[in-house]
Design brief:
Shape: globular
Helix content: 25-40%
Order of helices and strands: EEHEEHHHEEHEEH
Largest sheet: 4 strands, mixed
Oligomer: single chain
Strand order of the largest sheet: 1-8-7-6
Number of helices: 6
Structural class: alpha/beta
CATH topology: CBS-domain
CATH superfamily: CBS-domain
Length: 145
């Protein structure tokens, strides 16, 4: 029987994650997040290698900063209705995101998530291409009760 300390993140990660390219507009980012019902997405370069991560929180912060948001039930509409563009994902993403490889233990990744204060870890292959995402909810789902 595999214990939580031995189990690897490949057993709990969401495979083939939605990714977004550098330079993508914030309106398109909002559509991707809402259309896929996700709260964050890895950002990749032209070689599909991870360069950052961007979340709904990052997007809302930019909208609020621009004085464009109160309560935003529809982020995609709020971002696309702007008279002037708010920039691209490059402007709001967190560069150098926390990453892991599929064979890392769940316990090790959980410790890193806690120490880095992040809610998602991007799982990458040997070429630094995203192959999965592990969230705090994925990790919590491993523990009983």
């Amino acid at each position: 029987m595999t214990t939580t300390t031995q189990a690897t993140i490949e057993t709990i990660m969401t495979r083939n994650p939605v990714v977004i390219s550098m330079g993508t507009s914030l309106a398109e980012l909002a559509e991707v997040l809402e259309g896929n019902q996700i709260s964050g997405v890895p950002v990749v370069d032209p070689h599909e290698q991870i360069v950052g991560v961007v979340s709904k929180t990052d997007l809302v912060s930019r909208l609020v900063e621009g004085g464009r948001a109160g309560f935003l039930p529809d982020l995609a509409r709020a971002a696309s209705d702007l008279e002037e563009p708010l920039g691209s994902v490059d402007d709001i993403m967190t560069g150098d995101p926390v990453t892991a490889v599929p064979t890392e233990s769940i316990a090790s990744v959980a410790r890193r998530m806690a120490s880095e204060c992040v809610h998602r870890v991007i799982v990458i292959d040997a070429e630094r291409r995203p192959v999965g995402v592990v969230t705090t909810l994925d990790v919590l789902g491993v523990f009983p009760g």
